[in-house]
Design brief:
2 strands; two-stranded antiparallel sheet; 1 helix
Length: 47
């Protein structure tokens, strides 16, 4: 991935400020951590 730490930090700030995700106890209040997961799919054609 080409994301920088600053980009992730900014995105997390936006998510919190705009209440993008809500839990049963309300919106997110602070940053805890971040991870990037990647997925690779290889398709094999069968004859």
């Amino acid at each position: 991935t080409n994301l920088t730490k600053d980009e992730v930090n900014t995105l997390m700030d936006v998510i919190i400020a705009k209440n993008i995700f809500k839990t049963n106890s309300g919106g997110l209040a602070k940053k805890s951590g971040a991870q990037v997961a990647q997925r690779q799919v290889t398709k094999f054609e069968m004859a």
